[in-house]
Request: fold
Amino acid sequence: MGDLPVLELDHKTPLQDAKITKINQLAKDGQCGIADPIKLGIVASIVSETLAILGYDS
Reply:
């Protein structure tokens, strides 16, 4: 993500100055992986994947 340094932020970008403790905690404690929301081997569209995650799959 690109941004320009801001004088009022001591020449840091808004992202560099952001207080991101919650995001850091999520990154530290979170899990990553691959999910098969429809069935193994089926590539889901955005709509079908969202419906499956919400429990509306058939």
Summary: The mean pLDDT is 83. The chain has three helices and no strands.
